[in-house]
Amino acid sequence: MATAIFATAQVSSSAAKGAAFGGVIAIRLLPALILGPIAGVFADRFDRRYTMVVCDLLRFVLFASIPLVGTLARNAGVAVSWAAIATFLIETVGMIWAPAKEAAVPNLLPKGKLERANQLSLVMTYGVAPVSAALTIVVVSSLLKAKTDTWASPSNIALYFNALTFLAAAVTVFFGIKEISGRSAKRDKGEGVLTQFLDGWRYVGRTPLVRGLVFGMLGAFAGAGVVIGAGPFYAESLGGGDASFGMLFGTLFVGLAIGIALGPRLIGTLSRKRWFGASIVMASCAVFLLAIAPHLAVAVLGALFVGSGAGMAFLAGTTMLGTEIGDDVRGRVFGFVWTAVRVVLMLSISLSATLVGFGGTRLIFGVNVSFTRILLAAAGIVGAMAGVLAFRQMDDRPGVPVLKDIWGAVSRRPLTVGETDPGKGLFIVFEGGEGVGKSTQVVKLAAWLRLRGQEPVVTREPGATDIGMRIRGLVLDGKDDISPRAEALLYAADRAQHVTEVVRPALAEGRVVLSDRYVDSSLAYQGAGRTMAADEISWLSTWATGALKPDLTILLDLDPAVGLKRAGERSGADRIESESLAFHERVRYAFLDLASADPKSYLVIDASGDPEKIALEIRERIDVLLTREPAHV
Ligand SMILES: Nc1ncnc2c1ncn2[C@@H]1O[C@H](COP(=O)(O)OP(=O)(O)OP(=O)(O)O)[C@@H](O)[C@H]1O
Ligand SMILES: Cc1cn([C@H]2C[C@H](O)[C@@H](COP(=O)(O)O)O2)c(=O)[nH]c1=O
């Protein structure tokens, strides 16, 4: 806004003002075309914190230079030319900054909190920031009305302020968020820039999830572009003018905010992959409703649904880009998606505005139909097709009826698998990496419970049943190459038998069950360790256990290097213990992520301390649980 207003302020005729405004906007989009495809390589190749800091410092200097050059040159031609060049450079730098930032954020948060973080970020970016910017510019303009020709004109002040925000961001990221550099130290694998660039494109092409995300996002943005481009003519076709257009546009944004703010609460546990496709289909159907709306009231309803569908799809899409795509390629995927989205949006806005301008009205079956409506109907159909395509590419619950699944999630009765009453017992699970002391603590807690007159059932995974023992032999002792999917299924099979044969009967009798490992081990080892999709592993375990959840999970957290050393001193390394340290580090962080996403269900303990102190900490928590639940005493 500041740069476009600055450019228009430098010229006087209305044609020149229009050209200056449009020129600045066009220049802002140009770098996306030129630089977008390789911007992601920067984010994957270099330290993301330094990339962000350097980009912000450059933007600070460039923004400040626009009013400075204007004041010093005292020549409209020079000022506007430099504004255009600086704007181009700012946008170019922004193209490099954005994938670095987007790729860094998922490493700073537990996976379970990323959706919340994205909600906050989207509301700030598209809600709070533009409104505050518009208000600031109104206030600054009215305060400085008399000083339009000096260095302190409103647009100059806005630009200096803008420059300072980038300086503040650079300082914050450099000194305050050092963790951004944390997990990226081993990223440079000696590959050339071109190889990394091509690898990124190949990854987008061959990964169904990313393909689905790209189809869906591009379809949604093309539809949004058509709605924006055709908007003024559409308002006319409803018999309204600028006020109707303003109302529809405003409603679209209200819908967007509603989708982003309330969507996750509405759909509860529905698979995010299904939610993404379904939201695009919903937004596209609403675009079709706009096309056939007979009057403004129906069109306002349509705009509300277009906005909320788009908001939900945007939130689900950005969250999945963060949670489902590996750190090493995430920058390139973000770079690719943002570039494609900008180009599609720009093209669809300008093409649709041009087309409806020339299109006029057509006579169809004796009815006068404006070309705007035909275009909107086509956009609705294309968008819905993109949504269905995305849904099919990404569906993680094939065979589960879609509408029933959505209704189950909305009505809080998700279509889980054979969910049964867990009984009145207490189910305590010990989790953590290798050698953290789970078995040691299970024995200590069992002994304490016996002193209190309880007879706990002590069990473990894998291997608590006869079948489980054979599975344990296969997954841990065998030298065979087991594929990740087969491994996940073997652990799930052990778990199904374990729950049916040992855990549920004991809980039904009201006993306390202490299990050394459960579902979280699969999420951590097969999900994060083997880098399989977490929600697929989760679904498999839910199916295997009939959705039986522990009452408390005690997570013993320890540096894997220390744990593996402890375990190695005890016995030789098995198939999983022999995995790399990086594998075990991923496992550790996955356990911590799970605990921080649901802190009430976990007790996280530093396992490097004295075993007796750890046992005391556990007893204190169990004591509270047993006292609160008289059935177990
Ligand atoms: N807090 C502790 N400090 C030091 N050593 C410990 C501690 N707790 C347990 N150990 C020792 O570490 C080794 C591994 O402990 P334990 O078998 O209880 O771990 P675990 O988590 O069950 O391991 P795994 O998952 O590999 O079966 C044992 O030799 C045990 O005596
Ligand atoms: C339940 C479960 C376990 N694992 C792995 C984790 C360990 O390496 C072994 C079990 O050995 P322990 O000495 O009994 O702790 O199996 C896994 O990868 N996935 C799982 O679901």
From TrEMBL:
One of its GO terms (cellular component) is plasma membrane. It is found in: Cell membrane. One of its GO terms (molecular function) is dTMP kinase activity. ATP binds at residues 432-439. Residues 1-395 form the Major facilitator superfamily (MFS) profile domain. The chain crosses the membrane at residues 25-43, 50-73, 79-100, 120-145, 157-177, 212-233, 245-263, 275-293, 299-321, 333-358, 370-391. The keyword RNA-binding does not apply. One of its GO terms (biological process) is dTTP biosynthetic process. Keywords: ATP-binding, Cell membrane, Kinase, Membrane, Nucleotide biosynthesis, Nucleotide-binding, Transferase, Transmembrane, Transmembrane helix, Transport. It is a multi-pass membrane protein. It catalyses: dTMP + ATP = dTDP + ADP. It is an enzyme of class 2 (transferase). Its EC number is 2.7.4.9. SUPFAM superfamilies: MFS general substrate transporter, P-loop containing nucleoside triphosphate hydrolases. CDD domains: MFS_MefA_like, TMPK. Its main location: membrane. The keyword Kinase applies. NCBIfam families: DTMP_kinase. Belongs to the thymidylate kinase family. Phosphorylation of dTMP to form dTDP in both de novo and salvage pathways of dTTP synthesis. This is Thymidylate kinase. The gene is tmk.
